[in-house]
Design brief:
The protein has 170 residues and is mainly beta. It has one domain: AOC barrel-like. Helices cover 5% and strands 58% of the residues. The protein has one helix at residues 13-20, and strands spanning 3-4, 26-29, 43-56, 66-76, 78-90, 97-109, 112-125, 128-135, 147-156, 159-168. Strands 1-2-9-10-3-4-5-6-7-8 form a ten-stranded mixed sheet. It starts with a strand and ends with a strand.
Length: 170
């Protein structure tokens, strides 16, 4: 049985330990409903990805924010690389935290080449997760210029995979 938990792989290094203690062997990070519409003619891309996170200095001293760079390699229907940045914060209450991230993805989606930007918005409210990962409207280029999409992130046995529900208008 899969249990849903939030942020295990995405919070700043100092924050990962708190979530790792509660993480089950399979972690599913799901998206929530967004205002970005995916047409009924949408497709689902699936595959795996590797992610490297590197702690960065916060822009402001004593800000209580974690900051990391993101470096990903996607495999499967989405063959791409991404680079981005993430900010995270934890409260004094165990199981409560939040993060935002932006990453620019470059590569091919089902053979169509281009770039687009993924926006992550996540919160955990006393262990209740909420995560939205969507393509920033009108951020696509080249053959992905009219891409609309949302992504589910799945972590199982320490490996990352994705489900990418998308539509590319003609």
């Amino acid at each position: 049985m899969r249990r849903t938990i939030f942020l295990a792989a995405f919070l700043a290094a100092a924050h990962v330990v708190a979530f790792a203690q509660a993480a089950p062997p399979t972690t599913v990070i799901t998206t929530v409903t967004t205002t970005q519409k995916v047409s009924s003619m949408s497709k689902r891309a699936t595959g795996t990805f590797e992610v490297k996170l590197a702690a960065q200095s916060p822009h402001f001293a004593n800000s209580a924010l974690g900051r990391m760079s993101i470096d990903k390699q996607f495999h499967g229907v989405l063959e791409a690389v991404s680079r981005g940045e993430m900010l995270s914060a934890m409260s004094d209450v165990r199981g409560s935290a939040g993060y935002v991230a932006m990453e620019r993805v470059a590569g091919a989606l089902d053979g169509k080449r281009g770039t687009f930007v993924l926006q992550h918005t996540g919160t955990m409210n006393r262990d209740a997760p909420s995560l939205s990962v969507t393509v920033v409207p009108d951020s696509g280029t080249d053959e992905l210029k009219v891409l609309t999409a949302k992504m589910n992130i799945i972590i199982a046995d320490g490996k990352h995979s994705y489900e990418f529900d998308y539509s590319i208008a003609d």
